[in-house]
GntP family permease (Aquimarina gracilis), 446 residues
Amino acid sequence: MITGPSLLLLILASILVIIVLTAKFKLHPFLALIVACFFLGITVGIPLPEIVKSMEKGFGGIMSYIGMIVVFGSVIGVFLEKSGGALKIAQSIIKLTGQKKTISAISLIGAVVSIPVFCDSGFILLSGLADKISKLSNTNKASLSLSLATGLYTTHTLVPPTPGPIAAAGNIGASGYLGTMILIGLCFSIPVLLMTQFLSKKLGKSIVANEKHSVEEKKQNDSIKIPSLRNSIIPLLVPIILIAVGTILRFIGVAYEWINFISAPVVAIFIGALLAMFLLRPKSKDNIKGWFAEAVKVSGPILIITAAGGAFGGVLKTTPLAEYVGQWMTSGESDDILILLLIFLIAAVLKSAQGSSTSAMVITSSLLAPLIPALGWDSAIQFSLAVLVIGGGAMTVSHFNDSYFWVVSQFSGMSAKDTNRTFTLITGIQGVTVLLLSVLGWVIFV
């Protein structure tokens, strides 16, 4: 089996295969990942039956952890969206902050809503709000749209239970530290959001946004009978609180079987899904089935891409990569900060090349997984910062090949050119900011 520098070149070639197939030939990421599995396994010299076994093990392993979490998280998101619960949370935050701080308020709305709701859906749902706030507060609509879009984007890549961070944690064997990742991800989100609010105000003030799509969304939102704030926020907060409390109690040495049970991510998010179905249920029973079916449909593409990334990770673990890197580590030529920079760059290249933040996080974490034993990372802080670095790379950058870029452009009323010189620029700065915060955190706490 091939090892040494040649192995690294073949792994790089397999990443290029994924990039070319998705970016140039528009192949679905699932198929591109499966092709890359066979390419890497065959060229490295893994026996053919072993390639299949490693793919199956990696595919099933990640699905056993992330599968139910993604489905239950999608249920919360869809019921929040369809019931108007997300809109109620948004309106309440604006009422709390006041109209003079509308850019900050709409950024916070995006950050809160994107924890359970995919950022594409969240922006479509709330884009009409930017038009309404703009008229009420005399604030530039483009600045509001940019602040909303980047607020959604921040927690989408930094805070579980969104699929990207969940998948990355599962791939590197850090599923037991999910509560810590939520807490650190939320802490990191604060400076990132402050930075995006400043840039959104500065870059958006000279842009005149078209109101066509926002007006349509406003009419749609006005027709929704919105639930109470209590009912809207409980399905979102309960899972996060359960996971966080369980993590804190285990950290201080307090452990009970029932606490460990209900704070397990799959159980906590399942409880949140049940609460969403009960508190945000539609009047018609048929609609409940329809909303649930839509949640399953939404989670499908995420699951198959994530599982294919797990298969790719399974093949990587079968190569001599861990042994080779382990020798490199013991030779004293490596450094943890260098590793963080490397995984950030890999995630950034993958994101910029093929458009999907989730795919970039899945692939990068799959590459990192075989290195964990050699690196000697074993603490919650180390795993959390590693996932955040991957998330920062997966932010960098959103441009023409990213579906979210076009959602922001079309529903904000900004031209593609204006979106590229504002939103794309901010996403790049977001990613670098997360990298710097992660490196600083590593130097101080590790």
Summary: The chain has one domain: 54-445. Residues 212-222 have pLDDT under 50 and may be disordered. The radius of gyration is 22 Å. Residues 129 and 308 are 37 Å apart (CA to CA).
